[in-house]
Design a protein that fits this description.
154 residues, elongated
């Protein structure tokens, strides 16, 4: 596939995939979930505006640091319609989850600092395991086995 001219206002799904390094199935998934938008041609083919490339890069970077798709969608909804977002627009959007990232960094540092207690424990000490059961949160759910998942603060 030849690279589209920088003057081309719209890109096909294949062109966005090639430029972004994201599979076409992922692009369709992002679109179904309201993260990116396209218009349909008379032949029912998707066409994306060029700023979709920046949005896809933002989505991928956000996912790499553990931001949920719901949070990513909410942040992208803050971007202007009808024009390519500026650097200031992106800075405002990324500020939305700075506190979440600070909290995750803190948790990872605590895990790193306490990891020597964890290695080889076999999780026999679930009341104090910082990895599977930090601060014995499972006890709040009552007696018996629990499936542990961590949900960051909203």
């Amino acid at each position: 596939m030849t690279s589209p001219s920088w003057k081309t206002p719209e890109l096909s799904v294949g062109e966005v995939a090639a430029r972004s390094g994201v599979a076409t199935s992922a692009l369709r998934f992002y679109e179904r979930n309201g993260l990116i938008h396209s218009r349909r041609t008379s032949g029912n083919q998707r066409r994306y505006t060029r700023d979709t490339l920046r949005r896809v890069a933002f989505i991928r970077a956000s996912q790499r640091v553990g931001i949920s798709l719901d949070r990513i969608r909410a942040a992208l909804d803050l971007l202007p319609e009808g024009r390519t977002p500026s650097r200031a627009d992106w800075a405002r959007v990324s500020e939305c989850w700075r506190s979440d990232l600070d909290q995750r960094i803190k948790q990872l540092q605590e895990l790193r600092d306490d990891l020597d207690d964890c290695i080889g424990c076999g999780c026999l000490t679930l009341d104090r395991c910082g990895l599977v059961n930090p601060k014995d949160i499972a006890a709040e759910a009552g007696p018996g086995p629990r499936r542990f998942t961590y949900t960051p603060c909203p």
